[in-house]
Amino acid sequence: MTAPISDPQPSESTSGPSDSATRRRRPLHREGSLVERRLGGPRGLQQRYCGGESSGRAELAALRRAARMPPGALPEVWALTECPVPPGHGDAPTREEIAVHTAMTLYGIHQQSRTEPMHVPGRGLGQAARTLIGPPDDELSSARARFNALVTSTTTSELTHHLQAFVSQLRARRIPLDYAALADELVRFQQADGAKTVRLTWARQYAGLEHTPTPDNTDSTDSHSALEH
User: HSE of 46 in the Cβ direction (CA atoms, 13 Å)?
Assistant: First the structure.
């Protein structure tokens, strides 16, 4: 994976839920930084869409159409989903292309008809799930079932399927998510032994634990313990 790139902290004006679950995110890698640049900032897609600009509405609609297509299938989103490809790579999408395409199209689903930002730096997937599911004595059972299916996914296509449904649930409750961090996690998920590392990250976020470096030899069963209640 490429070297991490530090990103600026979210400004005080960032809207969406702001609580102790929204923390400083770990440094972004190349794919996460691409997503952050395309969504964030004064001329990013999020600002243009929430500001009512026609270009933002058109791009968001195109991302939604591309959500169930493979990377590169819809020319209208190429500028939003493209990423560098190593020389000599074959015709199949790279793991980085899959990650950026998936993160950006999920954002397209999440932001639809929402005037407040649904991409919020530092709002990890596990943290968003904790907010959506609710306290142990009053859980939203459909959200719990979807999150459990999501974190036990074993293939990228299975994970993407569950993410699309989960993001729709987040959208309904107006709960934001960090799509730049998600892009990096999707790259990592596709690497050897990467799935268990990503699960542990989400489990720690869900449990409200502060970020600590993830040991390479952590057994995947550890990632499930933080999700138990």
Answer: 27
The model's pLDDT over 107-134, given as tens digits with 9 standing for 90+, comes to 999 999 999 999 999 999 999 999 999 9
Q: How far apart are CA 163 and CA 172, in angstroms?
A: 14
* List of long-range contacts for 10-19, beta carbons under 8 Å, 24+ apart: 10/120, 10/121, 10/122, 14/117, 14/120, 14/121, 15/116, 15/117, 16/116, 16/117, 16/118, 16/120, 16/123, 16/174, 16/175, 16/176, 17/120, 17/123, 17/131, 17/174, 17/175, 17/176, 19/131
Q: Taking the model in full, what pTM does it have?
A: 0.82
Reading the block at residue 144, the tokens are: 């719990």
Per the structure block, which two tokens stand in for 148?
Answer: 């459990």
Domains for the chain: give ranges and CATH numbers. Answer: 30-84+92-225 (1.10.520.40)
Rounded Cα distance, 216 and 138, in Å? 35
The pair of structure tokens assigned to 128 is: 């968003």
> Mean pLDDT over residues 71-87, rounded?
95
Structure tokens at 18: 């702001």
